[in-house]
Amino acid sequence: MYTDNKLLRRPHPYADESLVGYIARLADSNYYSSPDYILKVSGLTKTERYANIFYPQFDSLCLLSHITGVSEKTLWSMAFSSVALGKTKFLYTTIVQAFGENIPVRFLRKQGPRLCPVCLQLSPYYRQVWHLHSVTGCPFHKCFLIEKCPNCHQSIQFFRAKLLKCKCGFDLRNSSITTISAEQYALSYQISLLCQVPEIDLVNYTD
Q1: Taking the CB of residue 55, how many other CB atoms lie within 10 A of it?
Q2: What pLDDT score does 200 carry?
Q3: CA separation for the pair 153, 48 (Å, rounded)
Q4: Residue 169 Ramachandran class (φ > 0 left, ψ -120 to 50 alpha, else beta)
């Protein structure tokens, strides 16, 4: 039904963009009311998408590749793909491949997105590293990542109409920032190095 339909606007992914964030950006670029349509035509569900987790055993990115023109290999590199169930000391846990390593899923944030307002001003896309629980600050701008809208005080949602705006209409780029401590900056910076986060892309958002 949908396989012959390609998206009119197909922006290329950034090197460190998360797949769920890219799906949200595709919806915004094509003026859809939410990313639900992109998920539907791609045969994907919302299950655990906040954490950017996709399952090679169940998820196919073939249709998403077709409607975007982005190779499946590139799309999978943007996702945290489930590898297997791994055993910790006390229980079994899902292991995902992220940043070239196999890590327990508990290291990933499932509650919703956190983001840096300044990063969004420079290049509006969702970074993979923002999905990590331990990353609470931006190593480039030395500020806390925000997870709630300063205007309505509700948690920010991935599945909203506009990538840069909360559901209440507030432009998240205009959020006030709070400087992180030297210790928090050092932690975020070291994690960004370990995750091989590229330098800031200064391309302006013109869509």
Answers
A1: 14
A2: 53
A3: 23
A4: left
Report the predicted TM-score, pTM, of the whole model to 2 decimal places: 0.87
Residues near 1 by beta carbon (within 8 Å), at least 6 away in sequence: none
Buried b (16+ CB within 10 A) or exposed e, 89-108: eeeeebbbbbeeeebebeeb
What is the reported pLDDT for 199?
Answer: 63
pLDDT at 117: 96
3-state SS of the chain is CCCCCCCCCCCCCCCCECHHHHHHHHHHHCCCCCCHHHHHHHCCCCCCHHHCEECCCCCCCHHHHHHHCCCHHHHHHHCEEEEEEEECCCCEEEEEEECCEEEEHHHECCCCCCECHHHHHHCCCCEHHHHECCCCEECCCCEECECECCCCCCECCCCCCCCCECCCCCEHHHCCCCECCHHHHHHHHHHHHHCCCCCCCCCCCCC
Pick the closest to residue 71 from 136, 13, 9 (CA basis). Answer: 13
Query: What residues in the chain have per-residue pLDDT under 70?
Result: 1-4, 48, 84-93, 199-207
Is the Cα torsion angle 47, 117, 102, 198 positive or negative in sign? Answer: positive
Give the residue extent of every domain in the chain.
Answer: 19-105, 117-194
